[in-house]
Design brief:
Layout lengths: L14 H25 L5 H13 L5
């Protein structure tokens, strides 16, 4: 006789696990969206001025 319980079956995932996975995916999607928005923002003129002044003070290597 075959013992059905002894046969390996894939573990059942709980509802809490599935809900946690969905929450993580939603958080990941929102973080990617926020990152993309920040990357696509223009660089403020004041910051560009600071960078230009720093470049002017740095001796060129070459």
């Amino acid at each position: 006789m075959i013992n059905i319980k002894a046969m390996k079956q894939p573990p059942k995932r709980s509802m809490a696990f599935d809900e946690a996975r969905l929450r993580q995916q939603a958080i990941g999607a929102k973080l990617r969206q926020m990152f993309d928005e920040v990357v696509n923002e223009p660089v403020p003129d004041e910051f560009l001025d600071i960078l230009r002044r720093a470049d002017d003070k740095t001796p060129e290597n070459g």
